[in-house]
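Sequence design from tokenized structure. All designs in this work follow the same two-part layout: the structure record, then the generated sequence. An example of the structure record is given first.
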């Protein structure tokens, strides 16, 4: 998988799953839409990743790290509530972010070796 595809997968996963979580919630908290916002931002930046723009790629990496870290609290909350569906949703978003990070790191290492 290349960084562009990893970014698209991560962005689309965030958008779809966070929207599902927002619509499935009884109270519909707007904070559930934060991953949707980040997913849209990643989607907009994906063309820069495809063009191998280093600045855009680094911004995407930083955002991905922030997204993974910020999903800790929803993970903890779902775990404490015993809400298995919410737990699965959060784990899927985390997994997409981790997969993207692994792809970015692998690509950065390959680019370094190519120099």
């Amino acid at each position: 998988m290349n960084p562009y595809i990893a970014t698209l997968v991560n962005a689309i996963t965030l958008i779809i799953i966070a929207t599902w979580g927002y619509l499935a919630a009884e109270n519909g908290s707007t904070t559930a839409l934060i991953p949707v916002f980040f997913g849209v931002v990643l989607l907009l930046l994906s063309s820069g990743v495809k063009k191998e723009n280093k600045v855009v790629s680094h911004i995407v990496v930083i955002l991905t790290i922030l997204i993974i870290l910020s999903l800790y609290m929803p993970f903890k909350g779902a775990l404490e509530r015993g809400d298995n569906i919410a737990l699965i949703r959060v784990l899927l978003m985390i997994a997409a972010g981790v997969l993207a990070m692994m792809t970015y790191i692998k690509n950065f290492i390959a680019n370094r070796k190519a120099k």
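The chain is about 85% helix and 0% strand. We note this feature because it recurs in several other targets discussed in the main text.
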